[in-house]
Amino acid sequence: MAEALLTTEGLRKEFGGLVAVDSVDFSVPEGSIVSLIGPNGAGKTTFFNMLTGVYKPTAGRVIFAGEDLTGKPPHAFTQRGVGRTFQNIRLFQNMTALENVLVGMHVRLKGNLAEALLHTPRVRREEHDARARAHELLEFSGLRRRDKVIGRNLSYGDQRRLEVARALATEPKLLLLDEPTAGMNPQETLEFTDFVSRLRAESKLTVLLIEHDMRVVMGISDRVTVLDYGEKIAEGTPQEIQTNDRVIEAYLGTAAVSS
Amino acid sequence: MRRRIAERVSAAWWAALTRAGLSPARWQALPRLRRRAVKSVLWVAVGLVLVAAFGTWKASALAVAAVVILLVVPPYQKLMVGRFPLGKWIVPAAAIAIVISYPYYLNSMPQVPIFGPFPMLSTMVAMMIFSMMALGLNFVVGYAGLLDLGYVAFYAMGAYMAGWFASDQFSKQHLDLGAVGQTAGAIGFHFSLWLVLPMAGIATAIVGVIIGLPTLRLRGDYLAIVTLGFGEIMPQVANNGNSLFGFNLTNGPEGITPIDSPGFGGWLHQHLHLPANYVTVGNYDAVFLWTTLALVILTVFCSVRLRDSRLGRAWIAIREDEVAAAAMGIPLMRTKTWAYATGAFFGGVAGALYASYKSGAFPNDFFFQISVFILCMVILGGMGNIWGVIFGACFLSYLDREGLSNVGAWMNGHLGTHVNVPLYEFGIYGAIIVIVMLFRPEGLIPSSRRAAELHEGVHDDPLYDAETV
Nearest Cβ partner of A117 from B306, B313, B317? Predict the structure, then answer.
């Protein structure tokens, strides 16, 4: 197995008396696509939020690319190369698609206040390049003609795609997708699966996704981790997971296995 | 209800026009430019009729109308000379020219109905200074979306910076750095005001950071409450600062006065004909108007540049969605603090200049109402829109200085009442804000983005509104 890009050690989160995530040891090998599945309320999104710094873990550590990032603010995670999307789309609704992507580039640009005021050649070049790059990303995500449309006027599928484009703009090493195909029709889901595979092939990205659609999970994942009541109950290749008794009992049900 | 009234009025209007031979379809078929021209001419005509009916008729009213039409009607935006977008600059340049030449034609301006004469020069100066403050607050409220109810603290800080470094306040010191109009051996710090202005800006920005660091962790309402507290602390310190551990920092309720006025000194006066000392040139208000105008232009310049920069995008992103902004790698605290510091900077510069203009910094000028007053300007004009904010600032500070008393006088004269209108000043502002919030929550000249935000989710009348059933 390739070296782990992201590792958690005994990661735990309590909300008051409720243990949402209970001592999870977990790792994402570099260059792989890993899925996180589990029933509703299993703590998947809480786990995700700890991996991106939105929540501070109650106990345990998050190690990314060899660096302990536990307790760091979200922008520090993004800075190191963790990009994410949200379960409920959180675009900047009143900014255009292009501006959304430009905001995503924030950590990779350097222009400061004084340079912005003086419009130094360096910052002008940087802005110019950033716009060109943003257009590339939009094109890559299939939003070429949507660059001037404001976020909330995009169709649902386009909003999902724009969220990914925006996450890609942060130049992540690890991309976290929180239920990316939720609400998509089968055709859109298929396109999206292709898109994620293409991402990995073209930009050597490591992907971690939360997903409910078993065809997506089994189709593109190298490894699958299953959470239930905040605990990791299984981990392995899609085939192993499909035949794991505990997983079938907790989540998949017999129908999913036979399909 | 409002929509229904508007619909009914417009239906009646079109019915009348159709009878006169102009159906909506025919009107829509006209070229856009012609429609715009007709509309503008119509409004100017209405204005002129009002002037003729209530005011003193002067030929200059026609000149004003002509200028308005020339500025509003033609589609300047599209005018290009080669690759240079000349059109974009025509309206701002004309507006600047109108303000610069204001002292020369003020006396030949007509009386406006109800509002009376055009604003005096001193009022114009106040309008410019408040524009600058409102633009400063716009960085915080309009761009970064942080509600600041204590902006007066920055104004006060700027004013007291001028008080400390351009007056006799610190009597044990003798330091003269380019100040004009000083007698030999004057006591206290006397820095040239051109030095004091940036000093005041920077000192105020530092105060902004100090206030911001503990408070900006809070969100929404909590932030507003804490800023409110800081806005109250500042005037109290100013009021009681005449014996701070035995040291007279602010001279207490009497305030610091007189404060030096700006000037360029003898050498620049001789070579460039710049005023050597604003007090002695004779047209004190006019030179101040030009100075403040220059600073407003500088503020607008900074607003535009920052809005379109990486930092400005980060501010707007934070306003739209803090969690997503953080996930995009925007450091929330630092970015918000930058907004605070930038806003504070311009508040400080404006405060210092205003103190110099009034030749004094008095604690009574820095009470809570001023914070609300400046916030009202931003809200009335349109949060986030530079031109809207300037308009709001000019309009409200005009009402404050002259407008309300003029309107009151007109009302008492024509209706036979005896109401002291300026007494109800803040009640009237409150009413204006309530009306604006009800009917046009995005402000009079909104930024397109802000307008969208405020109407988001209000696509239709609320469900519980029984009236629409």
Answer: B306
